[in-house]
Amino acid sequence: MSQLLMNLRKRLAASSAVPIVPSKVFEFTALALDSDLTFARSSVGLTKNPLGKWITVAAGSPRWFYQSPIHLPRLLQEPLTVNRMTDNNANPTTTSGWTNGGDVLSVFSVVNDPSTLLSDAGLDLICTSGKVYKLDNSLGVAPAYVDSVGTFGGTTESTVSAWVAGGNGTFTRTGTGTPETLAFGASSPMVRRAMSTIPSAAGDSFRIIANAGQVIYFIVAQIEANAFKEWYDDGTGFSYRAVPTSPIITTGAIFTRQNDALSLTSLGSRTYFDEQNFTVAVEYVPFGFAGSQHLFNISSGSSTNQYAVEIRGTGTSGGYERPRVTGSGVVDGNQDLIVLGKPLIGKLNRTAFSASPTQYAHVSPVIEFPLCTMPFTQRPVSPTIMRFGANAAGSSSQFFGLLGKVSIYKTAKTAEQMGSDVLTSSQNILMLAGQSLAESWFYSYETNHQNTGELKAIQIMDGFYPANENILMNGARGGSMLLLGEYTNGLPYWFDDGGVAGGFVGWGDAGLRFIQQLYMAKAAGVQIKAIIWNQGQGGLGGTVTKARHKAGLITVHQQAELILGYQVKFIFEPLSRYSDAQAIRECYQELDADTNYPRMYSGPEVIDMALLADNTHPTSAGMYVTVPRTTRKAMAVLGNTVTGGVNGAASVSAVRSGTTVTHTFAHEAGTDFTPTTGILGYVYLDGAGNPVALSNIQRASATTTTMTLASGVAGTLYWIYGSSITADITKYIKDNSTNGLILRSCAIPVA
User: Which residues are CB-contacts of 63 (< 8 A; sequence separation ≥ 6)?
Assistant: First the structure.
């Protein structure tokens, strides 16, 4: 038996062991805190009840938050925040202090709710007077505005928000420079609008503008010195926007909502915790990212002696998880690159951390290295407290979101064993594997490192499986190879557990994420619905031929099924513009057509993917266009009905008359295509494989193109051939279906 198979069997046996049971579970969906926990908040706070209504919770009481009636309640945790408004922002009686300006015909007043705006927005239990502010500019010919009762009080980035209904308008601020703006359209019921801004001076105000001819109603205005962000779909890609914290009621003066402080004290005496060998698993829903937020912190009250898992991020790069381990002032594990994907805002996320006397591990479904074995030089000693949602001192790095469950184990679980903590049978799981183009779904190679691909794919999955938790697993590794070629006589790289020649190490490099994610799924007893594979850039050469690459793909598929213990579908995403693209694309197409491999599929073309200057990696805009094609293909493969087609038009024939070639194709879901002239992407090779120049390529009908050969010879007409494709992505044949799919590549003999 080969060493490869022996190693596989060993790991299969290990992953099939009896599950490790937590020694303690804090279940925050139970509407009561465990008696071992200590909770404090020295002010009132607000939360949402099961009916979606905002309600007040007394000081010192935890806040159970319902995202929607179908979600379990979870524990709301928020940082200390000051609302600097000085009006009665929920129950106004007067407009005193507000400044009305702009169109002289505008009228600013306090009025009764004109319909059911407050109740429809879930505000009627806190806006008990039934009053709202009204900015009436119905007679105006120019914009009208009101400036807030309350100022920013500083120049740090802040978030302003209010519930707004009625006509068109804008949020902005007073002050010098060019203020940030947020334009909004007409809405009913009231919608909470939020904008981040950097004041030019402490005395700047929050301004609400009603456009000419518009009437705006608003309530519960808020100015807070937080700058939490979230990614959102703006219709052309994913951008980021401000996220306010829960409403903070003011009654004539600024109000400070204190942070929610949750902790487990006397840690050393807890029989269910072992500082030498432990694992902590957390289920959480983040509401935004900004700076550092500790999900949990185990320490002696000092940041120089701590274990922690935190969310880090900014408004331009999104958030990511990382473990922190410090001992006696020596930092052993502040590893920014450990997690590649980002926590999903507003959705349930799962992460797990384990520590032994020699190393620690950190696991999540989108992690860069599922097993991060960072050795300790001076590990934390004698921890006394575990904080949830704050740093070692409890005074900063406060979490903004929901806690669902925290599990503690008296053992340092392996990455595979922690699969059961981050993966569940309630999830619909797709897995990405391969090289950096697959990796880019989670972490683009642009400066802002958006996870556009992940966000768009999950958005599509949510449409097909709305009642489920939909996630992507990241098994990709940038720059990795399917085969090591001349270094190992073609041993599949992804499944090489041992060291190899040439400076390559299999288990420690290329296949690490892929293999460990498979074992995590195996240990968790969950099913991966499909694996999306994008790999092959620079994969051929030396002794690695097309045939050997194809055999390697088959081997990886078979070994993945061996590990998982069930049949799994493989969907190959075609390469973009790369030297090996033609041979790799043909591998995919041949496997798709081979009845011996019924679970292998070639995905729709993504040749029009917008690329960065390196001409290899996609832009976020490119991911936004192409990822949906592959995801919809996966949904169709899994038995879902997908409107708008999933493959694109297919070639039918190519006929030559003299120097004119007519190419005919059949639409899948479209009825026509663009562009009509200047079409690119065709290559014509004569019988000896020499290129013959093409010109005058244009649309002849809804299903045909014509082109002119430099010489009228027999040969082969290719649509999308190797790396000969230009970067002008507007010139590829794209159908007019809902999904806008590229014509499938082909090679057609021409007599």
Answer: 45, 46, 47, 57, 75, 76, 260
